[in-house]
Every structure is written in C-alpha cells, then in structure tokens.
Amino acid sequence: MDLHSQSIVVSTDENRVFVRHDPKLADILDFILGQAKRLVGAKNGAFYLINETESLVKYGKTENTSTSDLISKHIFKHRKNLLLKKGSTLKTKEIVLGESYIACFLGQDTGILDLGVFILEGINHFENFSTQDFELISYYSSNLSLLLRDSISSETNEDVYTSLITSILLLLDNSNIHQKNNRLEYQTEEIIRVSGLINSSLDINSLLESIMESAKSVFRSEGSSLMLVDPTKEFLYFHIVTGDKKEEISKIKVPMGQGIAGSVAITRKPMIINDAVNDPRVYREVDQASNFTTRNILAAPLVVEDEVIGIIEAINTIDRNNFSQADLDLFLSFATSCALAIQKTRLLTNLEETNHTLKEKVNTLASLFELGQAVMESHTEADLIKKSNQIIANEMNASIVATMIVNRSKQVIEVIAIIDGKEEWFKENFIRDSVIIESILYNNTIVSSSGLQDGIEDYLDLEFILGSHILLPLSISGDKPFGVLCVSGKTTAGPFGENDLMLLKTISSQLIKGYENIKLGIEMIAKKAIEKEIEITKNIQNNILPDKIPTHSNFELGVKSVAAKEVSGDFYDIHQYEDGQFAFLVADVSGKSLPAAIFMAISSSIIRTLSRNHLLQPDEILTQANSLIYEDSQSGMFVTLFYIHYDPVTMEIRYASAGHNDQIWIKTDNSYELLKGKGAPLGVVPMGNYRGGNIKVSPGDLFVFYTDGAIEEKDSSQEEFGLERFIQEIIQRKHLSSQQIIDELYKLIVEYADGAEQFDDFTVMILKFKDDFQFNRVFSANTSQIPKIRDFVNDSLRERNISDFILEDILLSCDEAATNIVMHGYKGIEIENPSISCAISLDGSKITVRLQDNGKEFIRKEVKPPSVQANLSGERRGGFGVFLMEKLMDKVEYKREENTNIWLLEKNLK
Amino acid sequence: MEFKVEVRDHTKIIYIFGNMDVHSIHKIEKIFLQEIQKNDSESIILDLENVPFVSSSGLRILVASLKFAKEQENKLFLTNLNPAVEKVFEIVDLNTMFHIRKTIEEAIS
C-alpha cells in the first residue's frame, strides 16, 4: 500500500471520493460533534459519511434515526444545507418533524467532492435552531469540508489527523468569534425590534410576552419571567413566564423583599446571581414548586414613574456558565422597554378611562342643562315632570320612566310616565301592596340588577318595573317622601348600577327643586292674589263704615259688626243732620269678596248721598237709591236695607225697608213690635215701590237693627238661634247699655254655634232711648267756638217752629253764657282741654239750654249790675252779659256740682 | 267783623259788617276804636245794617265809641239797627244814650 491509501478521504479512480473508516477518525468526528453541539446547544448530532460502497455511514447518535437518515439522504442528494423547524412536514414522506434540524452538506456543490452530511437534531431550551445557528453550522460545515478535501493530498495520516485537529481548533475559534459577532448583531436587532414593538398596537400582555421571549433568546437563557407588584404591595406575582416551566411557575407569589426578585424590587438595583444553588438569598419555593433547579439569575427592576412596579428575570444560561456584566447591562435595556411598554399602556388606559369618565360627565351635564331649561320653561308641575321623564329616559337608556307623586290627604298617587316613548298620565289609589309604594313609605332607594321577584301582583309594579330597575324616593330636604322616580327597562346591555343611581339622584334633585318652585310659585301667586283682594276689600269696607258714633242725644247707641270671613257683606250707617236729627241704617249685600265689596261701596255711597238730603223721606230715599243701584248692579247682586230717620225732639222714627228683615221695637213694658216695610231689595227691579211707616218711641224703648247673620247662626244639631230667642235675650238685658247688650248677645251666639265657624256676617245696632237733652255737643272753651255754639243752638231749633224773637233771645243768652264761661270761668286757671258742653232740650212748652263747664265757680254776688255811665266814664268795661242773659231768659239757674258749673237757661215758648 | 269808612262832608260814616260778638270784636276792636278816635269829623255815623247780631261785647265797644265821641265832642249816631239788636239796646237802656236813627240820611240831617 502506498501512503495515499492511508488518508482519511480517498479519491477513487472514478473521480469519486469516500471517507475511510478509522477509529481515530471516529474520535475526531466525535470531538467535532461535541464542539458543534456545544456551539449551538444542539441535543444530538451525527455525521453521515460516504464509504467505499457509496452508502452513508453514520457517526454519532440521533434520536429519530429514520428521520435523520431521510434528511441526510435528501441533503446528500441535493447538495444543499437546510434548516428545518420543529413541527414542519417533510413533503416527500409526510412526516412531521419532532425536532428542529440543521443539516449541512459536506463537500463541494460542484459534484466532485460529495463527502457526506452533517446533521444536528433538536436544540436545547428552544423550539428551533435559529438562523444564526444555521449560518454558523453552515460555516462550520463548509470549512470542515475544505479541511477534509485538503486532507486528501497529505502525506501521512498522522499529519492528517494533527493538522485536522489543529485546523478544527482554529475553526472552532473562528466559529466562536463568528458566533459572537452574530450574537451581537442578533442582540442589537432584537433590542431595536423590541423597542419598536412598544409603539405597536399589540395589547399589553402580548407585548410583554414578546419582549420576554426575546429576552430569553437574546440572553440564551432557559427561561425568562416578568413579575409585577400586586396591589397590596406585599407580593410579586408572575405575570409573564417563558420557558418550559411556565405552567407551574405562574401560580407562585414571592413576598416583597424575599428572593432575588423581592430584593431587586426593594433595592431597585439589578442583580446577577451566578451560583443560585448555593446562594442563600434565592427563594427556594419557586424551584420546589416547579421542580426546577435555578443555576443562575439575571434580574432587573421595572420602574415606571419612579415607582417599582415589578421585575424581569432571565434564568439559567444555556451555553455558558454565567451571566456576565455585559448581559446585565443589556438586560437593563430590556427592563426599560418593558417598563416603557407598561407605562404606555397605563397612560393609554388612564386616558381611555378619563375619556370615558369625561364623556359620561359631559352627558350628565348636558342632561342637567336640559333639565334646567325644562324647569324654566315649564309652567306646571306636570309639564316639568313630562320633560324630566324624557331626559332621564334618554340619558339612562331606559324604556320605562315613571314619576309618581302622592297626595296623602286624598290617598291618591298621580303617575306621569313614559313607556317606550308613549306618555301616560293617571291616578291610582295610594293604599296598596306595592313595591313602589313601599319605597315611598319607607324611603327606600332600590337599585336592582334583576327584575321583579315572583309573586308580585300589583298593577303599578307590573307595569313599571321591567328587568333591572332603580326606585328613587323623592323628598324635599329631609321630609317624608312625596313621590318616587321609577326607572327600568334598560335598552343597553348590563344592569343599572351605582353610576346610574348617582346620575338619577343628580337629575332628581334638580327636578325636585324645579317642582317645588313651580308649586310655590303658583301657590304664592294665588296667595298674593287673595291677599291683595282682601286688602282692597278691607280698605273699601273701612271707608264705608262710620268712624265716630255720636253720643250726644237722647238715645244711646251700640253697634257690632263682625264679618264671617275676611270681608263682610253687611254695612251700617249713622248720620247726624245739622239740625240734630239722625239717619240710621243697616244693609246686607248679597255675595262676598271683591265684586261684592265694590258693589257695596257703590250702593252705600248712593244711599248716603241721598240720605244727606234732609228733605227726602226714607221711602223716597229708597226709591231713588234703587233706581241708581239698579243701573249699576250687574250679575244679580242686590242689597237689603232698613233705613230710619229719627227726630230727637219728637222722638219719631220714620222707617222704610228694602227687602230686609223686620226690625224690632222693644217697649218699656217688654212688649215688642216687628216693623215691616214694603219693597224689594235694592237693585232687583228698575222701579221700586217702597212703603214704610213711622212710630214714636219713648224713653226706655229700644230699637234693634240686625241682619240675618245674627239670628241664623246654627248649633251642632243644625238648629237656628232664631228671632224669638234673639228678642228675649235683648229684653232680659234691657237695663244694660246698648253696647253691653250687643256684646253679650254676640258672646251668646258664638257659644251657641259651639265652636263652629261663623256662618254669616253678624251686624246688630241698638238704639236705647232715654229722657235726656235731645241735642248735645261739646265745644272747646275758646272764643272761636262761641259762634259755633250759637250755630248749634240755631240749627237745632231752627226747624222747630219757634218764633224768631224767642230764638234770638235764646241765641243771645247762650252767647252771653258761653262768653262768660270762656272769659271768666276759665280765666287764669290751667285746665287741659277746657270745654263747654251744650245740651238743648225742647218740649211743647219750653226750651232748656244747659251749659256745663269745669271752670272756676261763679259767684253771682260779685257780678254788679251793668252801668252805662260807668262805661262812659271809663270805670268799667262791659258787664252787660249776665244782665242780658237774665233779662232775656225766663229762668236762669246756676249750679255747682263737684268741679262743674251747670247753667240752665229756660225760655218759654208761649 | 269788618268795617268800611266813608266821609261825607263833615260826617264820617262807618259801615260795620258781621256779627259783633266776643270773637269777632276781639281782633278788630283796637283798629275800630282808633278810627273813632281820629276825631276828623264833626259827627260819626255807625251803620249797623249788616250787623245781624250784637252781644254784650259788641255793646261794650259801642259804648266805648260813645265815650270817645263825647270826649271829642263828636256826635255819634247809630243807624239801621235790626229789630233784635234794637231790642238789646232797649233792655240795657242804651237806646237813650245813643242817637239812634232809622237811616243814614236821617242821621246826617
């Protein structure tokens, strides 16, 4: 044999080559396989080398021999390198690959040098060989091919083996460097890619998984994980786990501060632990739970807005023993990417939430604004409620909105609702067994995600509660609820919740305010209107009734008029003529309130004006009054009236009546007469026909005016007080003053009604006649009043058919008496309101004038008889007064009673 | 009370208007008497046609007038007295003191 036949690779005569089997070669191949496997972390590998018999001989071991055989055959045939992924199918044989393969052709593709195939089966910790791995092994393989080719022409096998090994070692170095370069490239690419991912629209979890997978691959570690701090801030929990053990690990929680993860989370500093097995800081529980041995750890914190939200880790280097500082530095940038990704997502989420909240708030505001408009525009409560229901239905996506208001006094509940866009409005009995009513009674707010319970039968509940619902009782600042808002029939997904309740509460508080305001507004307007009416009416009335009651004649007058309601339908009048005669009347107007008051004002002024005319008799006054009032009266209003003239001298009463009650004349012997007049109430017929009468009273008689309110008051058994009783009660009290009689009478009647509201206006006027001066007036004691005293006396006596002489004498005497009182009686003494009271009495035969004053006592003796001579000589001035007085009157009498001077001047009429 | 003065030849006629009672006299008394005291005529006629009423106060100033007239040696007449007023003069006996004439003409002549 020649030397050539000792070489590893042998070329044949047919220009083929084959590899000669050699134990040393097998070792070398073994070595090469080992290195190659280590280089890329392959599980298994083998050489398939061509032998003399042109079959491929396998050196090395693979799991799936048939598959690897097939692949190598294919590669050998096609002279092409392939990277096969796990799970892919070999087309020819329809086999699904259980592992990832790298298969490289050894030789030259020219076809001259077909040496064999180099195959790697399966990669540790990863699914597939990477492109870089493939490139590396391809590079490796092609160099190996060259080496083997060169070995054909070498001298000895020993040299061949040596140089082969040397070359292989060099190759390995080169491969390492190559690989490192590739790795750096790969890492850089990955980092760039991962950074780019952050801006993608991947959801956060996919994004984080992507990043962690990338980290695992970049750092060539068996696993990587991302842990987050839980909300309680006491634990870290696994959020993303990559690598084999992910199932078991995902459930574990690591307490803050414990384990590497916990420490990094607290210290915020990254850590490399290269001897995890022996390092006491490592949290053993994770390994225990996952049946895994942690050899080394690379950990970095995730910091977002200055807060540690978690950590990332890479576990167990694959192709080297330790994580390096360079790894750590790079790892930090991954940490930054994760942190950024999380921050971005948070911001986006916040933004979305904020947006959503904002949108909701805008909606709420819009509907509140709408409601505000509704409040302003609505004039009635019903109007407002209708509008409000619509707004609620729109805002809350409810097909049923009902506002129910209770009227407790009437035990009725008013329902204003909108159902599927249709308005409903009705009243129902309030007392019922209903969920809705109960919510009002007990002030229960209900938010329910489910519908009515079984067994509910009430119409209101059935009609207005459909599915998820809210019942919100309506009340005004803490009072009992006056109603309820019922919202149900949600048209969008999901039940009504707290947010809906809040919205409803906001709307309802607006609604209640608006409702209150409208009610108050209406009430106030009504109230104001009533108040105004009453004020006007009262003013009118006050101007109608007489202010002063004359007391100066031969009767005593008492009067009481009490309105049943605010405004009375009765009026009375008292008038004294100049000549000292009187007119009295009571009247009763039909109707109440403002129109009646105005009518009364008109009628009373007509009557008064006419009555001031002394020439008209009572029946004439009524006739004329009737015509005038008839003209003015509308809408059927009328006045009943009883009218009298009284002459104190003759004590005659002339009376007339317009449809009024018969008035009463009570005599001294306690008998009585009812005085009727003929004629219709004023304002009823255009031409009235009135016929009254006349009577003559005596001192001690009573004349009673009244309106029917006085006798028609009813007691609890609906019995009237009655005229008979009225008269008897007065007769019993005849001895009292007129006013006292009336006051007692009124009390009686009030008691009789027994607490019931006054039925009708009460008016009673009583004249009690006495034997007294018929004309009476008080004057203040100064000279300006003296002419008035004269006028008074003159007026009183003027119509009495007294001869002028007599009248002149009386007038002069009164003048002198009064002058004397003023000039002498009150001279030099201090008295408040010095006065002279002048009373005149007239009977058939004589006139008596009584003058009364509170001045100094008059001493007759001191009055000397007048002397003209004395006057002429200047000795005296005047002094004629008393003399004249005494000369002119038939009798002059002076009395001093207590501090009062009384002058009585009498003049006979014949 | 008011008065109006007229002079005819040597006669002063004072027309008096209104009641002569304590009240009306009060204000006018002084001026009236001043008029009397002027002494610018031989005789004075006080015309009371428009005096419906005279009380003692009125009498008083009439008497005072008379007093001044006498002192001045004027002749004083009263004319056109109302019956009521005349009656008063009679009662007090003043009708003899005064020259009472029915009309002014009478008095003048």
Gist?
Chain A has 910 residues and is α+β, with helices and mostly antiparallel strands. In chain A, the strands form 8 sheets. In chain A, strands 12-11-10-15-14-13 form a 6-stranded antiparallel β-sheet, with helices on both faces. With 109 residues, chain B is α/β, with parallel strands linked by helices.
Q: Which blocks of ≥5 consecutive residues of chain A have pLDDT under 50?
A: 1-5
- Spatial arrangement of strands, main beta sheet of chain A: 12-11-10-15-14-13
What fraction, in percent, of the residue positions of chain A are helical?
Answer: 40-55%
Q: Sketch the major β-sheet of chain B.
A: 5 strands, mixed
Structural class of the secondary elements of chain B?
alpha/beta
Assign the CATH architecture of chain B.
Answer: 2-Layer Sandwich
Most extensive interface: pair and counts? A-B, 30 and 25 residues
In DSSP terms (H or I, runs of 4 or more residues), the helix count of chain A works out at 21
State the helix count of chain B: 4
* CATH level 1 name of chain B: Alpha Beta
Radius of gyration of chain B, Cα only, in angstroms? 12 Å
CATH topology of chain B: Transcription Regulator spoIIAA
Total count of domains of chain B:
1
Q: For the terminal residues of chain B, how far apart are their CA atoms?
A: 28 Å
Cα distance spanning the termini of chain A: 210 Å
Give the oligomeric state: heterodimer
> Total strand count of chain A, please?
36
Strand content of chain B: 25-35%
Shape designation of chain B = globular
| Most strands sheet of chain A | 6 strands, antiparallel
Give structural notes.
With 910 residues, chain A is an alpha+beta fold. In chain A, the strands form 8 sheets. Chain A has a 6-stranded antiparallel sheet, with helices on both faces. A 6-stranded antiparallel sheet of chain A has the order 18-17-16-21-20-19, with helices on both faces. In chain A, strands 4-3-9-8-5 form a 5-stranded antiparallel sheet, with helices on both faces. Chain A is rod-shaped, with a radius of gyration of 65 Å. Chain B has helices at residues 22-37, 56-72, 83-91, 104-108; strands spanning 2-8, 11-17, 43-50, 75-79, 99-101. Chain B has a 5-stranded mixed sheet. The relative contact order of chain B is 0.18. The model of chain B has no long low-confidence stretch (mean pLDDT 88).
